Amino acid sequence: MNRKTHVNAWVLVGLLAVAVAIAVFSLVYGARAGGEFEGADGQAEGTIGMVSPDYEPWFEPLLPELPGEVESGVFALQAGIGGGIVGYGLGVLRTRTRQRREAATGATQAPATAAGPTGH
User: Could you tell me which residues belong to the region Disordered (predicted)?
Assistant: First the structure.
């Protein structure tokens, strides 16, 4: 393992440790703050009710109120789709960069001989 790969591995381990620490901290902090995972929609509805009690919504939801498990599943599906789109985009960008680098390297390393494919 060369030095650059070794450094990259430690950077990855450090980033994973930071991600785990953030997740644990947010769960502990949330448990101390009341423990309820309240969505932004409910908070916005309460604020709108305080600011403008006579507010009428423009439309009704397409689906009735879903149970918590179904709602969590739909949210996880949305997150998975979004993660797939972001991952695909990053893969496309990385591939383009690699192809451009290979094209630039290949153009500078072209053979200098004018001989044909057989070498005669």
Answer: 99-120
Which helix (H) or strand (E) segment holds residue 98: the answer is helix 68-108
DSSP 65: P
Q: pLDDT digits over 1-54, tens only?
A: 566 667 788 899 999 999 999 999 988 887 776 656 666 777 788 888 889 888
Tell me, what DSSP letter sits at residue 56? -
Whole-angstrom distance, CA of residue 97 vs CA of residue 101: 6
Q: What is the pTM of this model?
A: 0.47
Dihedral of alpha carbons 65, 68, 70, 76, sign: positive
